Structures are given as structure tokens and as C-alpha cells.
Amino acid sequence: MIPAAFAYHRPGDLPAALALLQQYGDEARVIAGGHSLIPMMKLRMAEVPHLIDLQAIESLRGIRIEGRQITLGAMVTQQDLIAHQGLGQSAPILREAAIQIADPQVRAMGTVGGNVANGDPGNDMPGLMQCLGAIFHVTGPEGPRTLPARGFYESAYMTARAESEILTAVSFEVPTGGQAYEKQKRKIGDYATAAAAVIVRREGTTCTAASIAMTNLSDVPVWSEAAGAALVGTPCDDAATRNAIAAMLADIDPAGDNRGPVEFKRHTAGIILARAIARAWSRA
Amino acid sequence: MNDLTPDRDERTAKLKGIGCARKRVEDARFTQGKGNYVDDLKLPGMLFGDFVRSPYAHARVTAIDTSAAMALDGVVAVLTAADLAPLGLHWMPTLAGDKQMVLADGKVLFQGQEVAFVVAHDRYVAADAVELVEVEYEELPVLTDPFKAMQSDVVLREDLTPGADGAHGPRRHPNHIFLWEAGDKAATEQVIASADVVAEEMIHYHRTHPCPLETCGCVASMDKVNGKLTVWGTFQAPHAVRTVASLISGIEEHNIRIISPDIGGGFGNKVGVYPGYVCSIVASIVTGAPVKWVEDRMENLMATAFARDYWMKGRISATRDGKITGLWCHVTADHGAFDACADPTKFPAGFFHICTGSYDIPVAYVGVDGVYTNKAPGGVAYRCSFRVTEAAYFIERMIEILAIELNMDAADLRRINFIRADQFPYPSALGWEYDSGDYHTAWDKALKAVDYAGLRAEQATRLAAFKRGETRKLIGIGLTHFTEIVGAGPVKNCDILGLGMFDSCEIRIHPTGSAIARLGTISQGQGHATTFAQILASEIGIPADKITIEEGDTDTAPYGLGTYGSRSTPVAGAATAMAGRKIRAKAQMIAAYLLEVHDDDVEFDIDRFAVKGAPERFKTMAEIAFAAYHQAIPGIEPGLEAVSYYDPPNMTYPFGAYICVMEIDVDTGETQIRQFYALDDCGTRINPMVIEGQVHGGLTEAYAIAMGQEIAYDEMGNMKTATLMDFFLPTAWETPHYTTDWTETPSPHHPIGAKGVGESPNVGGVPAFSNAVHDALRPFGLRHTHMPHDHWRIWKAAHELGLHG
Fold it and tell me: B236 an active-site residue?
């Protein structure tokens, strides 16, 4: 658990960070909260000769709610999400998901930006952001651009962000409807055995819109368009939920690990999704 | 000058002796981060060691190239087996009579095995150099299943002479270590063959690991000027380490000093001798500088001693009305690559033959086959006496399965078969003599405390609702009545490497009436500094707050076999009381002289000696201590000191009744402990608060083991649970709430009647949790499913019972 030697850089603003990234290329990685990268360095599974710490860059911090638009700076921590008063009202699913991530020590360091940018299929924020239809803001040598969360993840640890770019913020519209984040895990600090993010809109007794994303059930987060569609126009009853689960199961591709074999994960995914739909619907 | 106030109660309270919930004196430093652990030690010029470890579970080592590592700036040495061979230290003896490679000698036998030892000026450089050592391996077939190992043509231990006996008798296969038996096999098999009812089951107590928060490590320092070797280390048995180190190295024992500083948990993991200690000592001798080696978490989980891994095939027979008539058990014990169990020499399967448990079973047989596999060595007693957890789990599962066969309530079945209070001392069919017990009283108290009948009614209501489709959660009620065997042990049958398992205490009373006592044991969190002072306070009348307890330095402490197997209170605690009584005997003579009466005319009274029939005439222990040092007393030599070496006449047999109420979600396999009631009888209770803390800790480890903690390997021998992400260590969040209770049945042979308690909750807790899982699914036909009961395994059991539609 001793990392190889590395140089530590702590740029004060984004241009300086980008310049360092440019300068060191493949030898450099940016670090946000460090809860994924540092263990990998200690295990010597990641060798990072130049570590660029984003902690001193103020422009990457802050939660902004402007009209219907919410923007989270990349360096916003899980704890910030939990503690933020306005966010708890306008997008309660963020708090519900964040509080299920690890423990208070990890949440005090772990960031939204690191969580979504790392591309770890175990992370909760990517699926959540896909459910919200979030936009990721990245900046590179060519300037800023935006990438939709739903198209961001290519495979485990591989994303649409170029190596020379830094993810600076995540934005999304204030979600309307009932929201729920349901997660099964073995213990505190564990990744999900299965997790579901669900947002459903309701008019009368009918579901008018639904968005469903699953976590740690494939090598990327899975936004299941078909699962959401299965709820639309229904009263979100058992039959509709069964259809949504069937659609979701067609989209996920879990791998067996110490949490259990594929068969178990697929079954659990269905149970967790059913619970998330029921809770979201009860809040819609 | 002397007056009668304060009264006797007040004087007793002031002592904080036996029975007082005295706050732990250790906690002031531990809660403020002021503990002094091995890794806190920094010596001038200290070097750092780190291991190159095998990525393969079974392979030949065809070449080791250390040149690139040696070329790295800051590297002092890279040791391989070839370097240790001239000293005869490339292999070392294990505590179980086997031998173990210190560094890979031609082959590796488990993943994580030590291959080379890098020594550098800096911990980071050492880690870098490890990466630069080039080892060529030639992979060999891997055996991870002990049953397959006993059939395989693949020979793991090519160093052993084929056909030759091992340390514990004949070996009938190259991968066989021993067969150890107890009881009457023929008679047992005959009883079972003709019994009304027989329950049969294979029960696996899975491989797990003690995983102390502080990993293993040491600092070895060879002083080449005076020829003295000092080793600070995480040693649960420092004196034994000194003797073994002397025997292995040839350094005279007086020139070796072993110091166990504060230890952050041991649980059996720190009993054994590890290659890191040997390499550090050799490196210090070679370099003349102190060498520190501290393993990291992954190394701890991968390479230092595991626990359990017993496959227990059992048969239990009974009459129709539930009277048990016989118990038969055969164990296939997976010992890993080397037999490095830490058991008393004559007991290669530990005290597993306590497996008749709390029950009056007329005839029984146990056979244990030890087997080599390509897994890490160990087999230590993880928060238990030697193999007692396995035994308790076995019998408490067999009882539940027999209850199913008999269609009987498992609480009733236990009550019918308990050894009665009037049967003690009770000779068991497998050769033990239980010292004392009152199981019926404890059992009835426990059942009443939880409203057992009410719980069963609620469970039935829930089951009906489940069957109607109104809920997906079941209730399980896990029962356990366990009997432990601790306090090893009588020298006549207990030794480790020939060292008798007595223990010791040496007391020095200071002139002003305070004291220091040193013991042969070593606390790893048990609170010895608190509780041993309490024993002494009651014995010699000096307040516990004025008694320093010191352990762990072989240059100052008397010889003893250390702390594990709940032996500290039964053995060293007894020595403490006995040494205290020697102090008191001398104090009596001094008091009589000072009071100008005959020795027989004074009597001990809490904190003083008083003239019989004239309590106003007395001398306090403080006054006596002062006189002992500063007054010429005819016929009595100055000073007030005593030492006792205590060889216990028998083990002690703590017992307890545990009840766990668990909610099980059959769809996800998630569980919730709704209630856990733990009644412990550890004989005389020295400190109720320390007991409660011990019970909480032991139950939490039991919860971990039963519900998810596991050392698992894949078929290639890759360790799959080498980090705390996958190896379950409960946090405050997962830890259930516990209710503790007690009865008090003193040990008749222990000077103060104490039996030891630190391990009871781990012994009794595991079957209580596991039985709750089984009990929930019993109505659907579940007989047995293997631990750990993590989500997917519970889900699998429910799935196979058809509960998922």
C-alpha cells in the first residue's frame, strides 16, 4: 500500500491545471477527492508521475440553482450535496443518493466531478446523472464543450472526456415528479450490489414521464429508456412495474463478483427497481 | 491514630476490587492517540523491510534476480532463501510441529507467500525495490479443495519424506498432515446404527481471519557491541517468542529481549511466528542496524494466520422423545500450505473434542484429518480457545437439525439434554472434566428474558402473513447454549513446543503502599491493567488505582505463555491471586509483630489486618508496607514481594445462552438483527463493564463471521477477499444492539472462581446468528446452508426453497 513516487501539483486556477495536463500528457492525472485514484496508486495499479490536485481551484466549487437550472461544480463534495438546503428541496434524489455513498469521512472528500468522471461502474453519481438527463461540462485545450451524461460512458473507466480535458461542472434541469434512489449494498463503504434511480411524473393516476437508471449492473451505468417508457401511460401498478423490470433486465449486463453471481444480481436489480418505482410514485 | 471510619462498605468501594465496574485505565492513552504501538517506534538509523510475494498459489521458483533492486539508491540488502540457507533459517519450525519456508525455497505454495525480503533506508524505497526484484515462476497445478487434495497426485510438500510420520503420527497421503481421534468410535457407530432417530449433515465453518486493526510487525535491533538482540513486536506470547528465537538462532536466551508494546488487537493472529520476524532479525544481524517490518492490510489478510476452515461431517442420534444417545464427527481440516496452527502440542485439532457442548451425551467420537492445500497457513484460534468455535458451531447446528428430525422445538430439545447442575464436575464422553455449570437456570432465564413463547407466536403470525403474500420478510429465532473450554492449561497435558502452559505474576509492594505487578501475559485490548489490579486489590487490600500492571517485556516480566484462548484470567489471573496471597501471608506476620500479638490473632479485613475480636486495633496495608521496608522485624527479611507460577489443575468451562431475533428479506437476502440477548456465565465477575465490552466485541466479530466475513479463493488459488471492501469488518452502522445478562457459577478450582469471558461471545454468537437464519427458513424445509450468510447466499437458500415463485 505504498505508492510509487509522484510529483504533486496544486494549480490555483483552471488554465493552470489545463496547462499542467498539457505539459505532462499521459504522465498526469487530475485528482479531486482522491477516493478512487489514491487507492489505485497505493495498490500500484495506477502509476501517476504527475498528480494535479484541483482542490485550490475555487471556480470548480459551488452549487448554483438558477431558475430551473441546477449546476454543480466538479469539486462539490457528497457532503455538500447532503447539506445544501435548496438542493434538498429542488432535487431531493441527490441527497438520497449521496447519503448512501460510503461513510461521512469519504463523503467529506469525495466529489461529484470525480465520481462522474472516473467512469467506475460502481459509482452512484453516473447513473443518477443519466436519470436526471444531466449535461457534463468539460474544458480542454480547445476550450469548453458539453457532453450528455447518457452518452458519456463507453466502458469501465472509459468515457467521452478526452485525456486533455477536465470535467468542470455538471448541470441539469430541476427534476419534476417523484424521485427515489434505492441501493442494496453489503455494508457501509461498499459499492452497490444493485442500485436504481427513478423519477416519475404523475398526472392524476397516470404516469406521464419516467426516467430510470441502474448502477453497478454493467460496465457502465445503464439508463434504460425502455424501462421508463414501460411506465408511461400506466398507473405504475404491478403490471407496469413488471414490464419496466423486464425492459431494464434486457439492458443490464451484470458480472458475477464477491457480491454474488449474475443470477442473483439480476433478481436483486428487479427487486430494487420495483422498490424505487414504488417509492418514487408515492412521492409523485 | 487509627480510627474506625470509614466503614467496611466504604473501604471496600475504595479498593475498586473484584466486582467493581472500574473504568479502564488504558483508555486514557488509547482514546487520546497516545498508545505506543510497534509502528510508532523510531530508532536512529532504522531500516525498513518489505516482502516480494508470490502472485501464484503453486509454482516453482526457477530464478530470482535481485540486481535491479540492489542497484536502487537506498537499498541495503535483498534477502532470498539462498542467503538464509547457510544460517539454516530459510525454513523455520511452526508451533504445530511442522516447518514453514521463511523465504521461497525452490517453490511457492500459496498466493502471497514470502519470496524475498528487501531492506532499505526508507519505507518507500523498500516498496519501490520490491517491484524491481525479478522472479521467474513455473506454474504448477493448484489444490484449493482439501477433499480433492487428499485424492490428488499433485504433491504440495515435496520437502516431506513420503510415507514418513508427521509430528502427529502417520500420514496416509502426501497431502495429509495427521489424523487425530478422540472417543470411542466403535461404540458410537453402534449406538447411531441402532438409534431411533439420526440426523446427519456436513457443516462447513468457513475460512476467515482475525484481522486485528493493527497488523503484524516488529522492529529487530541487534546490538553488536553487547551481543544483545531486542525485538519489539506484535506478540501475543513474548516469552515463547524469546525461547523459540533462541532455539532457532542459537543466540543465548539472556541475550534476547522481546518487548510487546501496546497491541491493537490480536484475536489469535499474533500468536504465531512469521517470516517477517525472522527476516527482520537476520537483516538486523547482517546490517547492524535496527530493521522495521510492518505488514499492510492486504498482506495481513493474505499471508498471516487465518482461522477455521473445518468441514465437519456429523451424525447425532436420539430417542424418539429427544434424548441424545450419541455423537459422531469427522472433520476435514484445511490447514493450508504449512501446518502452522497454534495449538497445544498434544492437541493438533485443539480442543475440538469439546464438541459434545452443553449436553449429556453418553458416547461420542471425533476424528480430524489435517490436510495441506495451496492456501495461506494458519488455523489459529480467532477469539476463541483452540478450535472451540468450530466445536460449538458444530454441536449447535446439529442440535437444530436433530430438532427438525424430531419435529421438536430446539429450546426444549436443549433443555432435555443439558448436563444437570448436580452432574458437575462432569466427565464428558470425549475426555474432558467440566468444572462447574448450571445450564438449566441460565437457559430458563434467557428464554424468559426474551419472552420466547411470545417470539414464537409472533414468528408464526409473520409466517402466516408471508404465506398470504402480505410480506416478504420472515423472522428467525436463533438459539444457542454453548460451553467453552478455556484457560490452557495444565502443564501435564498442555504445552506449546514443549513450553508448559502455566502463567505467572510477580508483585512488588512499594514502601508507601502502592504496588507494581508484572505478568507473563500481554494485553491486546483486554484491559489487563484494569482487571488484574482489581484482583490484587481484593487480595491484598491496596486500592486498584495504586497498582501498576506491567506486561510484555521479557527482561522484566516473569515467564508465561501469553494471552490467547481466554487463558489470561484463568491462568495468570490465578497466579495474581496466589502471589497476592503470599504477600498477604507475610503482611500478616508483620501486622502481628506491629500489633504485638501472635500471627494467628490477626485477621485480614479488606484493607488491613486487625486483631481478632478487637477491630479497633489494626494496621493498614500501607502501614504494613512501610514497616516491611523501614523497620527491623525479627525473623522476617525486609521487603514485600512475591511471585507465583500457577499451573492450573483443570481448564475452566464458561458457558452462556444467546438468543438472536433476525428479520430476513427473502427477495434480497438482506437481514436485520432485531434483538440479541446474551447471557454469559464466566464464573466470578471481576469487572462487569469490561465483561460487557468483551461481550459486545466478541458478538460483533461473531456477527461478522456468520453474516459475511470470509477468506475466499478462486480455483487458481487467487485470494478474492484481500481488502476491507470484500472482507467484512462491521462498522458502528452494521453492528447490532446487544442486551447482556449473566449468571454466576464460580469455577471450583480457580482461586477466585473466574473462568474468562473474552471469547465466549464469539464462540456462542456465531451459531446464534446462523441458527436465526436457518430458523427463519425452517418452515420451508431448510436443514442446513453454509456460512457466511451474506445477501446472495441467503437469497440462494430462499431461491432453492422455491420462495421466489
Answer: yes
**A contacts of B124 (beta carbons < 8 Å):** 2, 5
Taking the C-alpha atoms of residue B607 and residue B257, their distance in angstroms, rounded to an integer, is 37
Asked if B383 is an active-site residue, the reply is yes
**Residues of chain B falling short of pLDDT 50:** 1
Closest CA–CA distance from residue B13 to any residue of chain A (Å): 42
Amino acid at B317: S
Contacting B residues, span 288-317, partner chain A, CB-CB under 8 Å: 296-298
Contact A187 B733 (CB under 8 A): yes
Number of alpha helices (DSSP H) and beta strands (DSSP E) in chain B: 20, 33
User: Which carries the bigger pLDDT value, residue A179 or residue A1?
Assistant: A179
DSSP assignment string, A52-107: EE-TT-GGG--EEEETTEEEEETT-BHHHHHH-HHHHHH-HHHHHHHTTSS-HHHH
Contact A122, A192 (CB under 8 A): yes
ipTM over 0.90: yes
Q: What is the mean pLDDT of residues A160-167?
A: 97
pTM here? 0.97
Question: Residue A111 gets which letter from DSSP?
Answer: B
By the CB < 8 Å criterion, does B714 face chain A? no
Maximal C-alpha separation, chain A: 61
CATH class for the domain made up of B306-487+651-800: alpha beta
* Pairwise CB contact (< 8 Å): B668 & A189: no
Q: Which residue of A has its CA nearest to B50?
A: A2
Q: Same CATH topology for B38-140+215-263+270-303 and B306-487+651-800?
A: no
Instruction: Choose the CATH number for B8-35+503-646 among 1.20.1250.20, 2.60.120.260, 3.40.630.10, 3.30.365.10.
Output: 3.30.365.10
**Catalytic annotation on B53?**
no
Q: Of A5, A191, A258, which has the smallest distance from its Cβ to B720's Cβ?
A: A258
> What pLDDT, on the 0 to 100 scale, is given for residue B4?
57
Question: Which residue out of B355, B759, B778, B793 is catalytically annotated?
Answer: B759
Q: How far is the alpha carbon of A139 from chain B, nearest alpha carbon, in Å?
A: 34
Spell out the domain ranges in chain B.
8-35+503-646, 38-140+215-263+270-303, 306-487+651-800
Superfamily covering domain B38-140+215-263+270-303? Aldehyde oxidase/xanthine dehydrogenase, a/b hammerhead (3.90.1170.50)
Cβ contact (<8 Å) for A186 and B131? Answer: no
